[in-house]
Amino acid sequence: MKSKDPSLLALLGFASPAFAVGALGLPISVILPPLYAELGLSLTVVGTVFMIARIFDGVTDPIFGIVGDRIQTRWGRRRPAMIAALPPLLLGVWLLFFPSGAVTPTGLLIAMVILYVGWTLYTLAHTAWASELSDDYDGRSKIMSYLQYFGLAGMIAVLLTPVFVDLVVEDATMVQRAAPMGALILFTLPAFSLVALLSIKEPPLEQVKMPPWRDTFKIFARSAALRRLLIADLLAGFQGGVNGAVHFFFVIHVLLMPAAASLFIVVIFVAGFFCVPIFLKLSMVLNKHRALCIGSIFQMAATIMLLFLPPEAFVLTFVVYMMIGANMGANTFLMRSMMADIVEVDERTSGAKRSALFYSLLTLTPKLGAALAVGLVFPMLDWVQFDPTVVNTPEVLQGVRYVVTLTPITAAIGILWALWNYPLSRSESGDVDRDGVDPPPILQR
User: Fold this and answer.
1) pLDDT given at position 89
2) What is the 3-state secondary structure (H, E, C) of the chain?
3) What CA–CA distance (Å, rounded) separates 309 from 369?
4) What number of other Cβ atoms are within 10 A of residue 310's Cβ?
5) How far is CA 275 from the centre of its chain?
6) Which among 81, 192, 248, 332 counts the fewest CB atoms within 10 Å?
7) Nearest to 228 by CA among 135, 67, 341
8) Distances from the Cα of 57 to the Cαs of 60, 108, 114, 258, in angstroms?
9) How many CB atoms lie within 10 A of CB 305?
């Protein structure tokens, strides 16, 4: 028998912390590195510290997933984890966005580790809890879409913050840009967390025997759906990493619009925000994986246009970036919803609730994809002889266009390959014959 999904008001309250989490993601890669370079650390040191912290973050994802699924308290599993994650997360934000005194590599690394511990524990608990709020195929997409709404809204808000600082402060420093970003996160995260915890009651958990941790990852070898989803998510992270790494080079040096570079990033996220309901409807009419495929095809078509954009064509470039950003409204929430389907099938097969583990894999893959993107795209720019410190020849700039377009298009083709024949659709998710009927053998495919 299906459980009743939460009300709209409860879902809005529950999803609201995604605003602060979304606002935190961009400054870590865009604002904090130049901030600490401005404060006296060398670029090599800053890059090394951030790389070490990111590796630590990736390694701890599955560890926190396994631990999170084994929490057993009378207050639930996800609620205590979110509460426990708040102090280190808020402390990390305070240390990083409001540096005081002389900064050192060791101090920066410690602050990054504290932040990532809190961030990983918090996001895994919140997302895993979201996946457990509905046992309906389309209901899970609806819930994840609200997290996407708030996450994109947080990204847009934090992107606009330094824009306002630059308007009111002449020759603003990175410290002055970072402070209001940190304040936004420090205010909204505890406030929205309280709203979320009061909006939804975590149902009591039946005592179940969890599989030994050594057997945890055997599920990857058995599940075609999980493998395909993680491949697609890794490639989506790769796409985002490429786009982020080359965006300013492309807009400033190829399109010759340096003043519009930050604006076009905002355009991408705004377009994604308004396209969430479109892809939610598509996922209900078709299936989630086909809606994702449509988004990838649309993004490929828009990306191809970057090959032909003339310099200083602001309006045309604005439209193209809106088209590219449309797929931002699909990837994250639909992949989270698809993972919730896998979690349900695993639960009905194994009897164990392992939501945090599965979502730890889904947070790990885009990080690996983004790291791979930076490791590949910068050597490719070197290969076409691009140099951001000089005036490049038209042949070199055309080479940059090929890197900017063909690399993410190749990743999109890989996403289509992974998802087009995805084996877990609406009819196979267990919604049709839930009572007393064994789930489909997805895990053995």
Assistant:
1) 94
2) CCCCCCCHHHHHHHHCHHHHHHHHHHHHHHCHHHHHHHCCCCHHHHHHHHHHHHHHHHHHHHHHHHHHHCCCCCCCCHHHHHHHHHHHHHHHHHHHHCCCCCCCHHHHHHHHHHHHHHHHHHHHHHHHHHHCCCCCHHHHHHHHHHHHHHHHHHHHHHHHHHHHHHHHCCCCCHHHHHHHHHHHHHHHHHHHHHHHHHHCCCCCCCCCCCCCHHHCCHHHHHCHHHHHHHHHHHHHHHHHHHHHHHHHHHHHHHCCCHHHHHHHHHHHHHHHHHHHHHHHHHHHHCCHHHHHHHHHHHHHHHHHHHHCCCCCCHHHHHHHHHHHHHHHHCHHHHHHHHHHHHHHHHHHHHCCCCHHHHHHHHHHHHHHHHHHHHHHHHHHHHHCCCCCCCCCCHHHHHHHHHHHHHHHHHHHHHHHHHHCCCCCCHHHCCCCCCCCCCCCCHHHC
3) 27
4) 9
5) 16
6) 248
7) 341
8) 5, 15, 10, 33
9) 16
Rounded average pLDDT over 132-146 = 82
Task: Enter the tokens of residue 371.
Answer: 């790291």
Q: To 10 degrees, the CA torsion angle through 14, 19, 21, 27?
A: 180
Q: CB within 8 A of 283, min separation 6: which ones? A: 138, 141, 291, 334, 337
Q: What angle do CA 121, 122, 125 make, to 5 degrees?
A: 85
Residue 173 has pLDDT above 80, yes or no: no
Give me the pLDDT at residue 429, please.
59
- Residue pLDDT, tens place only, 370-419: 777 767 777 888 888 888 778 888 899 999 899 989 999 999 999 999 99
Q: Which amino acid is present at 305?
A: M
Of 167, 80, 63, which Cα lies nearest the Cα of 129? 80
Q: What is the pLDDT of residues 203-220, one digit of tens each?
A: 666 555 555 556 666 666
First-last CA distance in the chain: 27
Distance of CA 421 to the CA centre of its chain: 24
Q: What is the pLDDT of residues 12-24, one digit of tens each?
A: 999 999 999 989 8
Q: Which pLDDT does position 363 carry in this prediction? A: 81
In this structure, are residues 18 and 78 in contact, taking their beta carbons and an 8 Å threshold?
no
- Cβ–Cβ under 8 Å, residues 339 and 358: yes
Q: Rounded to whole angstroms, how far apart are CA atoms 413 and 19? A: 31
Q: Which among 245, 181, 200 has a CA at the least distance from the CA of 22? A: 181
